[in-house]
Amino acid sequence: MSFKDQILEGIPSVLPPAKPYDDTINHAPKRKDILSDEEKKLALKNALRYFEPQHHAELLPEFKSELETYGRIYMYRLRPDYKMYARPLHEYPAKSQQAAAIMLMIQNNLDYAVAQHPHELITYGGNGAVFSNWGQYRLTMKYLAEMTDEQTLTMYSGHPMGLFPSHKEAPRVVVTNGMMIPNYSKPDDWEKFNALGVTQYGQMTAGSYMYIGPQGIVHGTTITVLNAFRKIKKSTKGNLFVTSGLGGMSGAQPKAGSIAGCITVCAEVNPKITQVRLDQGWIDEKITDLDHLVNRVKKAKTEKETVSLAYLGNIVDVWEKFDQENIHIDLGSDQTSLHNPWAGGYYPVDISFEDANEMIANNPELFKEKVQETLRRHADAINKHTAKGTYFFDYGNAFLLEASRAGADVMSDNPTLGKEFKYPSYVQDIMGPMCFDYGFGPFRWVCTSGKPEDLAKTDQIACDVLEDIKKHSPEEIQQQMTDNIQWIKGAQENKLVVGSQARILYADAEGRAKIAKAFNDAIANGEIGAVVLGRDHHDVSGTDSPYRETSNIYDGSRFTADMAIQNVIGDSFRGATWVSIHNGGGVGWGEVINGGFGMVLDGSKEAERRLKSMLFWDVNNGISRRSWARNEEAIFAIKRAMEAEPNLKVTLPNLVDADLLTSL
């Protein structure tokens, strides 16, 4: 069968042969055995409902074995034989160009070069899934191939509920992931209901089909590292950044450190992913001995090198060894998947990677105990370095939150509302006041032609637009404009494309709308093919996350999720091609609500109208909320937005004289 025929087939009426387990692929760890005997029967019934009754007897023992062996039913047998990657748009069987673009984005999320655990349909973060099983994938692709611009596909946590009549202005797809009743949003609830096949963890951009490989986090981390060094008034040259994690998102850290110009040491316990990052050129050197690491860092400091070093081992050993050897760390952070601490997101010290994985499946309570012991050691080692002048920040992975839950010494001696921890999150100190409050966030696009020359043209268009805007920008945002112009000029030479021909930069509402219009004009003129616009959910207004995206909200509203919900609803009727809303994100199940969108630009006047309406709302919704929280930079930004758009009228806060409150 051709590729198009396989897409149109959906779930086959004649079962394909069972597939052998491929040991060469980086697989998800075995999940916790959490279901009762009756619940296991229910999980099997739930999986079999995708198949005609004549197949149930054959599939039942196979699915039972998957559930027992891996803790989930992935339906490996249904994994397609064709190569998984983002094909040029015209290669997809589709009645709707918008639907074809969504198919392209789904396949990009599952590309072996992009996905962390491709056979388990997990894109990044250890559990960030596009679908829960291959039956869902096949059925979704079939629906997308069949749908018209008068229909909308509804996605319930990976399950395609079906095509419903709508209209051309409606989103083609509406995605929800993990939308649990609040009292059922604890980590074990995810384990249970995911094993039952009724919900999934979409991370941020995995379950919304908008992940573009590690490029997005490379850019965000580059901006973070540059601004962190500025904050401590140090040059990046010859100075040291220490962190951990080389997975789907965290793997960007050493590359970003090199672009910023510092020495980066990044620890990782997984030998497979460490080798992948070395082969990809995302790290310069792999080191397996601590003494060798110490000597290599000393040499790099002396010679003021820009170099990225991966240590294959536990990060706690690095912090402790550098303390003993008096290696000064300028910047410190962590980007292990601590949103997923009990299922492979963070590994205990003094236990081998293989033994730890076995413990996850067979003795989860002991594993949890060892992780919490490690977190306490980790925090103690960090505290020793910060006492010597290290600047440590939480990089939004729930490190401080989980460390506090483990009883680690990370709480502030003088806590205030929103500043309970000894160390700030990077949003509180860096990205919030410097970027998000001004409306700058991760704007991204994908060239659906698959042509590198189209990406090069869009890079030049974006650079030209930003340079033109910069000429008239106020002083408050000049640094952000400069950083992003520098980034886009160097994007191609840094070879950041993994998977689709995609790019990311940080832009405010004005920049996003003007870049998007310039793309749409270029498409209309036949200079480039259609473009998909999107963003990370980690942005100005898409995400309510009290310990990350909205951690610099100090009016008491950081535990509310009105902004994210308003964002996705507003995007849906202002022109988005698809919208998504998730529970989970990068900080943990039950800890965040985050929303995203995708928008197809086809060169039409309708696309121009939609992009102007939606992008303006998508950014200014968040600036408004941040302004109401009395964030000075956001008040400046929303006043500027109201001057530019007479139809925008936002409630501004009246500030209270601090002296009035001190007398209470």
UniProtKB/TrEMBL annotation:
List, for all copies, the residue spans of the domain called Urocanase N-terminal.
84-210
What cofactor is needed?
A: NAD(+)
Pathway membership of this protein? Amino-acid degradation; L-histidine degradation into L-glutamate; N-formimidoyl-L-glutamate from L-histidine: step 2/3
Where along the chain is NAD(+) bound?
125-126, 203, 268, 395, 586
Residue ranges of every copy of the Urocanase C-terminal domain listed in the record: 436-639
Query: Which terms are listed as keywords in the entry?
Result: Cytoplasm, Histidine metabolism, Lyase, NAD
Q: What is the reaction catalyzed? A: 4-imidazolone-5-propanoate = trans-urocanate + H2O
EC nos: 4.2.1.49
Q: Which InterPro entries match?
A: Urocanase, Urocanase-like, Urocanase_C, Urocanase_central_sf, Urocanase_CS, Urocanase_N, Urocanase_Rossmann-like, Urocanase_sf
Domain named Urocanase Rossmann-like: residues: 213-430
Cellular compartments annotated: Cytoplasm
Gene Ontology cellular component list: cytoplasm
Highest rank taxon of the organism: Bacteria
Q: Please give the Gene Ontology molecular function terms for this protein.
A: urocanate hydratase activity
Name where it mostly resides: cytoplasm
Kindly state what the record says about how the cofactor is bound.
Binds 1 NAD(+) per subunit.
For biological process, the GO terms are: L-histidine catabolic process
Q: Which family does it belong to?
A: Belongs to the urocanase family.
Q: Tell me which PANTHER family the record gives.
A: UROCANATE HYDRATASE
Record function comment: Catalyzes the conversion of urocanate to 4-imidazolone-5-propionate.
Q: What is this protein called?
A: Urocanate hydratase
Taxonomic source organism? Gelidibacter salicanalis
